[in-house]
């Protein structure tokens, strides 16, 4: 399988892709973030060791400065207890202070990859990445990825719609389970693209031989 446009020193245990999922109390760019889920894949689209992260965040400091939406809150009240317990209604002692969570997420990325090259995937070009970057700015912390490496899962599923048929495993609207599902979609897409590139390369070589 061909790696796609990554430095040669990226090994099978280097995170080339971070698939991000946020649960929030709004869809605005400055939404209150209730939980962060992330899954790391290598340049071949394969999971890496210790490549998952989930944190529920404290809300008190966010509520005063960031956006909430009554319709989103009502929507959360209609979701499963399991989904709420991982996010909207997580027990207080299980929640991370925002600053601590952001630093932990940054450290998690720094230990697994080069922030200059890692691609961060959100589900929607105006949602996960934009909201998390906004949260970093509000707490005056540098986000651990470069803006030019923002990527959108909806582009992937639009170009390769067959990955949308992959079965969902886990709890819907739990940030980590959602990130796992999207990482599986991305993994399948990378493998299919790599296969196409390999086939195309072989055909070109055969033609010019």
From TrEMBL:
Protein known as: 3'-5' exoribonuclease Rv2179c-like domain-containing protein
InterPro entries: RNaseH-like_sf, RNaseH_sf, Rv2179c-like
Ranges of residues in domain 3'-5' exoribonuclease Rv2179c-like: 17-188
MF (Gene Ontology): nucleic acid binding
Source species, domain of life: Bacteria
Species: Comamonas thiooxydans
């Amino acid at each position: 399988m061909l790696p796609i446009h990554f430095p040669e020193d990226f090994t099978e245990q280097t995170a080339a892709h971070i698939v991000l999922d946020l649960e929030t109390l709004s869809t605005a760019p400055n939404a209150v973030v209730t939980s962060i889920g992330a899954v790391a894949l290598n340049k071949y689209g394969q999971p890496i060791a210790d490549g998952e992260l989930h944190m529920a965040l404290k809300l008190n400091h966010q509520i005063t400065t960031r956006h909430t939406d009554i319709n989103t809150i009502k929507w959360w009240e209609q979701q499963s207890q399991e989904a709420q317990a991982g996010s909207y209604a997580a027990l207080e002692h299980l929640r991370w202070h925002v600053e601590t969570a952001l630093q932990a997420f940054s450290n998690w990325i720094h230990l697994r990859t080069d922030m200059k090259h890692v691609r961060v995937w959100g589900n929607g070009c105006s949602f996960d990445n934009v909201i998390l970057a906004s949260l970093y700015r509000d707490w005056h912390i540098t986000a651990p990825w470069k803006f030019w490496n923002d990527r959108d899962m909806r582009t992937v599923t639009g170009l390769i719609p067959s990955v949308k048929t992959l079965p969902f495993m886990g709890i819907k609207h739990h940030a980590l389970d959602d990130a796992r599902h999207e990482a599986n979609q991305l993994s399948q897409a990378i493998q299919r693209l790599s296969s196409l590139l390999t086939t195309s390369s072989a055909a070109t070589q055969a033609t010019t031989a």
